[in-house]
Amino acid sequence: MGKKKVEHVVFDGMRKIKKKVNINQYNTQTKMKVMGQTDKQSVQQHPFPPLYDKDSKVLILGSFPSVKSREMKFFYGHPQNRFWKVIASIFDQENPTSIEEKKKLILDNNLALWDVIAECEISGSSDASIKNAKANDLSEIIKNSKIQKIIVNGKTAERLYIKYIEPVTGIKAVVLPSTSPANAAWSLERLIEVWEFEIKD
């Protein structure tokens, strides 16, 4: 049997065009749109600075900011990302909503935030699409803080860290399960348990 196709409506200027596309391709395109992704690759630069101070002891690294984070110009901006719920629960605090509240939560608890990648080609928020990456320089953070441990948020951040940063710093990172909504296999309760163990160790 041939591959099943569906009718997909697109717009070319003011003209509506109906195209026949493979059902698997259609489902993939639809899913990417829901997750804030596109299939168009573009070069993106990290749009905001690291968050740390002289008392930061644990550095948490993501891979590269999502579309929502790049729009907000702050870490973990997607409303379904569980990062802020996890960190707030670990320290028995209210879930922060404003950027200032999030900064206070991180700095008051001697944490630091940054990402592995400074610039890359990426499709929307898809970590799997990252190409031609350039890594961030962690030397200033490490030199001007009390960093004792580096945590990477998820397997993609780990892979990128091992490839680009570990050879420079010589520091091995602890990988923790991703707080991304895409990591549905991990419940919020399980995330809090394993993250708390490493952050408070």
Notes on the structure:
- With 201 residues, this protein is of the alpha/beta class.
- The chain folds into two domains: 5-34, no CATH class; 42-199, 3-Layer(aba) Sandwich (Uracil-DNA Glycosylase, subunit E).
- The chain is built from seven helices and nine strands; from the N terminus they run E-E-H-E-E-H-H-H-E-E-E-H-E-H-E-H.
- It has helices at 23-34, 67-72, 83-90, 99-108, 139-143, 155-169, 188-199, and strands at 5-12, 15-22, 42-45, 58-62, 111-115, 117-122, 131-135, 149-153, 174-176.
- A hairpin with a 2-residue loop joins strand 1 (5-12) and strand 2.
- Helix 3 (83-90) packs across helix 7 (188-199).
- The longest helix has 15 residues, at 155-169.
- It is globular, with a radius of gyration of 19 Å.
- Residues 49-200 form the Uracil-DNA glycosylase-like domain.
List the helices and strands and how they pair.
Layout: E1 5-12, E2 15-22, H1 23-34, E3 42-45, E4 58-62, H2 67-72, H3 83-90, H4 99-108, E5 111-115, E6 117-122, E7 131-135, H5 139-143, E8 149-153, H6 155-169, E9 174-176, H7 188-199
Parallel strand pairs: 4-5, 4-8, 8-9
Antiparallel strand pairs: 1-2, 3-6, 6-7
Helix pairs in contact: 3-7
What order do the SSEs take from the amino end to the carboxyl end, as H and E? EEHEEHHHEEEHEHEH
What is the multimeric organization of the chains shown?
Answer: single chain
Biggest pleated-sheet summary: 4 strands, parallel
CATH topology of the largest domain: Uracil-DNA Glycosylase, subunit E
Helix content: 25-40%
| Uncertain stretches | 3-38
InterPro entries: Hypoxan-DNA_Glyclase, Uracil-DNA_glycosylase-like, Uracil-DNA_glycosylase-like_sf
Protein name: G/U mismatch-specific uracil-DNA glycosylase
Organism: Eubacterium ruminantium
Domain Uracil-DNA glycosylase-like: 49-200
